[in-house]
Design a protein that fits this description.
membrane, 11-stranded mixed β-sheet, arylsulfatase activity, 4-stranded antiparallel β-sheet, alpha/beta, transmembrane, Alkaline Phosphatase, subunit A
């Protein structure tokens, strides 16, 4: 919908607050002191909680980066913007792909920008860059309401650091097997052990050359293609130097706040931590009791402290809403023999990253601090969602313009104590585009019932995750469908260990009836069904098909002349 720009003079009584949103990548809810961890030191995050409001049932709309962040930015489930997956690939894999958050979508940044806010994103984006040609930037943060962007248009991942287990090494293993097969055929013919057609050998040899070329460009050069830093629409470092990334992101975030002290601003500080590869900053190395992962958490806490210190030292504390969260739960399967556990701890909750509707993958920290407006030290146990940020920020910016159908709700009445109950009677949990589970908070009851229609198959059997594949899938043989569905009462059984039965739960039949009716209403409101092409004008085109995800040279962001991309950021002139 077209938005009307209604800038408000800064300095008026009742002016709109500054907004600082802080999101950590892959952080487990059990990784911080204020959420029960007594061995990792997080005094600055704990301070935010003690000076503000801590949410204990804060839910991500998806258990993976791309769909969760799409929902967070738009206030709508990821399928509504085409960002839900139907197959194996559930997140964007290449910066040179054409998938991403559609230009037609509206983000909270775009809404606040139209209300006169100066908007900035520092850190991770992972919602696409180009659509049809290099430089069209149709998915870029600048096109989605962020007037300033510095950071990773993709994400931090293992290929950015030499020696880490990565997509590069996995693909190289497959290629080596293919080539070995060809040379084995040649050896067999040369030794006279088996009659092999020369035409077949020639075809296999050409196939191996083609496979090598096809592999080399997107995979061998993957650090060049994906591991880049952009300032607005310019690539300023390719490939990026990972070791200094945290300090640069922090400096940019602090600089943005200082530059905009005299006007209303929105800063989304989207950290590269705690996604692997883990950082190895000498200032924090070996300081925690949980190896490198714990060191990284303590570095995150220090960064949060520096941002808070910047806000407070500029006299902005009482006019700034600060928010802290994670995009989803910790990655349980991420570990190796050298470093040990590299993924987060999800406390008592079952599951983790990419595990559908299991609580450990979607229950995340949620902290709001706004001295003078929000009471300090409060704890809210009501169901809330990352999608609630969109309507909450709209309310704070006094944005009354028409909008699309939203799945989030304004949190201010709940945060200010004007109401005691969340507006989320039902919440829907997706694994890709598939409705995985439903949460029901009945009126007049403390119970939170959760109904699972299917669950991921863990491997090996009996394990608490998909350790054979590192990431759980949402379809086919990778899941088990339940008829009747599995039902848990999260109030009495937060770890989802004891399914309810008609014998143990008097409301068993009612739970099934109420959630089934809620699902029908929800599906009836889904006018934006995802499709793979543009054949249905009333549907949303999927951004997560292979056609959209795979690398295309003409879409690849490049510093220099493609394919000779390469540059290093001039940090001296930017300081």
């Amino acid at each position: 919908l077209p938005l009307q720009k209604t800038r408000k003079p800064w300095g008026e009584l009742g002016r709109s607050p500054n907004i600082v949103l802080i999101m950590v990548d892959d952080l487990g809810i059990g990784d911080m002191g204020c959420y029960g961890n007594d061995t990792i030191r997080t005094p600055n995050i704990d301070r935010l909680a003690s000076e503000g409001i801590k949410l204990t049932q804060h839910i991500a709309a998806a258990p993976l980066c791309t769909p969760s962040r799409a929902a967070f930015m738009t206030g709508r489930y990821a399928f509504r913007s085409g960002m839900g997956s139907t197959g194996r690939v559930q997140v964007l894999l290449f910066l040179g792909g054409s998938g991403g958050l559609p230009p037609s979508e509206t983000t909270f940044a775009k809404r606040l920008q139209q209300q006169g806010y100066t908007t900035g994103l520092v850190g991770k984006w992972h919602l696409g860059v180009n659509c049809e040609q290099r430089g069209d930037h149709c998915h870029h943060p600048n096109q989605h309401g962020f007037s300033y962007f510095y950071g990773l248009p993709f994400t931090l991942f293992n290929d950015c650091v030499p020696g880490e287990d990565s997509l590069l090494t996995q693909s190289a293993c497959f290629l080596s097997k293919t080539i070995a097969c060809v040379y084995f055929q040649v050896f067999v013919r040369a030794c006279g052990l088996l009659e092999v057609s020369l035409w077949l050998l020639a075809a296999l040899f050409l196939l191996s050359l083609l496979a090598t070329a096809v592999w080399y460009l997107p995979f061998k050069l993957l650090p060049t293609w994906n591991c880049i830093i952009m300032r607005n629409q310019e690539v300023i470092e390719q490939p990026m130097t990972v070791e200094t990334l945290p300090q640069r992101l922090l400096a940019e975030a602090e600089g943005f706040i200082k530059r905009n002290v005299d006007r209303p601003f929105l800063l989304f500080f989207s950290l590269a931590h705690i996604h692997t590869p883990l950082f190895n900053n000498p200032a924090f190395a070996g300081k925690s009791l949980h190896g490198r992962y714990g060191d990284n958490i303590e570095e995150v806490d220090w960064m949060i402290g520096k941002i808070t210190e910047t806000v407070d030292s500029l006299g902005l504390a009482n006019s700034t809403l600060m928010y802290f969260t994670s995009d989803h739960g910790g990655h349980l399967e991420e570990a190796d023999s050298h470093i040990g556990q590299k993924g987060g701890w999800n406390s008592i909750y079952k599951g983790g990253k990419a595990m559908g509707g299991w609580e450990g993958g979607i229950r995340v920290p949620g902290i709001f601090r706004w001295p003078g407006r929000l009471a300090a030290g409060r704890v809210l146990d009501e169901p809330t969602s990352l999608m609630d940020l969109y309507p909450t920020l709209k309310h704070l910016a006094e944005d009354t313009q028409p909008d699309r159908e939203l799945d989030g709700h304004d949190l201010m009445p709940l945060l200010e104590g004007k109401v005691a109950r969340s507006q989320h009677e039902f919440m829907f949990h997706y694994c890709g585009v598939y409705l995985n589970a439903v949460r029901w908070h009945p009126h007049g009851s403390e119970s939170i019932f959760k109904v699972h229609f299917f669950t991921p198959n863990f491997s090996p059997p009996g394990a608490g995750g998909c350790y054979h594949t590192k990431i759980c899938q949402c379809f086919g043989e990778h899941v088990t469908h339940h008829d009747p569905p599995l039902i848990f009462d999260l109030y009495r059984d937060p770890s989802e260990s004891h399914p309810l039965t008609p014998a143990t739960e008097p409301r068993y039949a009612e739970i099934l009836e109420q959630t089934a009716a809620a699902v029908e209403r929800h599906r009836g409101a889904r006018s934006d069904k995802q499709v793979a092409d543009d054949s249905d004008a009333n549907s949303v085109r999927s951004q997560m098909t292979w056609e959209k995800i795979l690398w295309r040279p003409w879409l690849q962001p490049c510093c220099g002349t493609f394919p000779f991309c390469g540059c290093k950021e001039d940090t001296i002139s930017n300081n």
